[in-house]
Amino acid sequence: MIAVSNLYKNIGHVQALKDVSFDAADGQITGLLGPNGAGKTTCLRTIFGLLTPDSGAATINGIDVALHPVAAKRELGLFPDPFGVYERLTPREYIQYFAELSGMPKQTAASATSQVIADLQLSEIADRRCKGFSQGQRMKTALAQAIVHRPKNIILDEPTSGLDVMSTRLLRDILRQLRDQGHCILFSSHVMQEVASLCDRVVVMANGKIKAVGSPSQLCRQTDKDSLEEAFISLIGSDEGIAA
Amino acid sequence: MNTFLSLLRKELIDAIRDKRSVMAGLYYAIFTPILISGLFMVMIDKLSSIEDFQLTIVNAEQAPDLIAHLNRQGISHSDDSAERLAIKLIIGSEYSRQMTRAEPADVILRADTSTDGVMTSVRRIQRALQQYSEEMSGIRLIARGINPQVVRPINLQLQNQATVESKGGVFIGMMVLLILLAVFIAGMNLAIDTSAGERERHSLALLLSHPIGLRELVMAKVCAVSTFGMAGLIAAVSVSKIIYPMVPWQKLGFSIDIGLPFILAAVLISVPVAALAASMQLYVSFMAKSFKEAQTYITFVMFIPVTLSYTVTLDIATEQLRWAPVTGQLQALIDLMKDQATPLLPLVSSCLATFAICVVLVLGMERLLKSEKIIFGL
């Protein structure tokens, strides 16, 4: 369960977040949809504690991120954007490293790493150094790191950008599986198709503000449109910065 | 503790696989002693062998005895302008007459002392002439029935107490300095890579989003960079042990022996210096916005210990600097190498001061890593 309430954040002279409140429930995939520059990344960074809000709070499983960062982060798996892989480590070393940092004992981390490598079909590259990997291979490695310790909450920032069709499908399957296991998944995207096909709930964001919250069908009903795309355009008033 | 070990292990694996970091450390550690040895060999050769030289002597026929004296000292006339120095010794045309009358005989020495190497030769000629002059006055006094001792009111006796090791003071100081500086240089690349580099590769934000304490993270990085610094020091001291004895120090009247006690002491005493080097380098690299900027800052950081250390080598404020970080450890090592006793209290206080600065820097880095500007390099 991830909840943010009344977040305000200025970055320089730009008001990046204006009174942002929403929550993402367990057993659901929540999509943060908005055009480029809407404040999605800023909002997510506030949730995982890298940015301090000017006011308002973010909680993970009820733990305030600003007050108890370590405890809150224990409940979290993260796929940031941009993400970095260590080029001189192999995916196996990389994934296990972050599993240990998430609090897993070494042995457990090693077996969890093997499991996630199998789940994400990474075995072929698991013991090669990351230098020279394709965008898709890097992406999967970073994703494995986010879910290896089976966190209750998973945040993904633009997880599909740069992925090919097969990898995107694989990612979707994994996210659905995790949802069915009761995980809370929050991801940001500016790709309409992805959000429409995957999300149980959509949070529409533009100019640092929440424009609407609801399931894709609710949003369509609310705006009296047939497709999420049309609904979205009528909600934010333009289709600038959005990919179909 | 487990998290710290995971962090440290990863930092070290990552660093050892980075050929650039490893080579940067090793190049210095291995090649500096070799280079310096070569340099000293040439210098010693120049200092210890007194070479004969030629110059132009005018009116030599006026003073055959003086010329013979100069020749015995390796100073002679040459007509070949290629092999003689640009120094002219002109014997006055009245020399012979003046000598017989016991009047001061004119000898003119003409040279441009701003030319490289001329000054040393001029001094040698002066010394030779002085000697000749004293001999002559002695003979003249005896001829007049006077004991030459009367013109020697002072009997100066120089008693050189320099031991074999202390004679080479400057050389030893420099050698120890070069060994100690390995600590600063060997970890430098890693320090940049693991801080500014980590941010530039976008892995810093991911790392900080994990449930780890900032202190563990900073300490792991400081330990990793210090380990590299220490590895550099051990390499430098080992190479020095092999290479330096090959230099013919005995020509200068001393010997250099890097024994096991010195190596052990060097390793032990350098630990605080390595920790200081690592935390300083990491601190400035975290502050830098990019890898390139970090490289610039780190060069400035290097200035501090290098300047301090040179101050010691050049014997400025030596006693006060025994209490200071880096210079305290440097002086203790120099004492050890010279087989002299080193005062313990200043060394201990210098080590404590060094660690205190490390603590301040670690706390400073924790502060930095809470700043959004630093994390995202804004």
Q: Give a quick account of the main beta sheet of chain B: strands, pairing sense, barrel closure.
A: 4 strands, mixed
Alpha plus pi helix count of chain A: 9
List segments of chain B where confidence is low: pLDDT < 50 over at least 5 consecutive residues. none
> What sequence of helices (H) and strands (E) makes up the elements of chain A?
EEEHEEHEHHHEHEHEEHH
Q: Calculate Rg of chain B over CA atoms.
A: 30 Å
What level of helicity do the residues of chain B show? 55-70%
What's the total helix number of chain B?
A: 17
Q: Give me the secondary-structure category of chain B.
A: mainly alpha
Q: Which CATH class of the domain at 82-151 in chain A? A: Mainly Alpha
Strand order of the largest sheet of chain B: 2-1-3-4
Question: What is the arithmetic mean of pLDDT of chain A?
Answer: 89
Number of spatially distinct domains of chain B: 2
Largest sheet of chain A: 6 strands, mixed
* Beta-strand segment tally of chain A: 10
What would your notes on this structure say?
The complex is a heterodimer of chains A (244) and B (378). In chain A, the strands form 2 sheets. Chain A has a 6-stranded mixed beta sheet with strand order 6-7-8-3-9-10, with helices on both faces. Chain A is α/β, with parallel strands linked by helices. In chain A, α3 (91-101) crosses α4 (106-119) and α8 (216-223) crosses α9 (228-236). Helices cover 38% and strands 25% of the residues of chain A. Chain A has a domain at 82-151: Ribonucleotide Reductase Protein R1, domain 1 (Orthogonal Bundle). Chain B folds into 2 domains: 2-45 and 166-376, no CATH class; 50-151. Chain B starts with a helix and ends with a helix. A 4-stranded mixed beta sheet of chain B has the order 2-1-3-4. Chain B has helices at residues 2-16, 19-48, 64-72, 95-100, 118-143, 164-167, 169-186, 188-194, 196-200, 204-208, 214-243, 260-287, 291-313, 318-321, 327-337, 344-368, 372-376, and strands at residues 53-58, 75-77, 84-91, 107-111. Chain B is built from 17 helices and 4 strands. In chain B, α11 (214-243) crosses α12. With 378 residues, chain B is mainly alpha-helical. Classes of the chains: A alpha/beta (244), B mainly alpha (378).
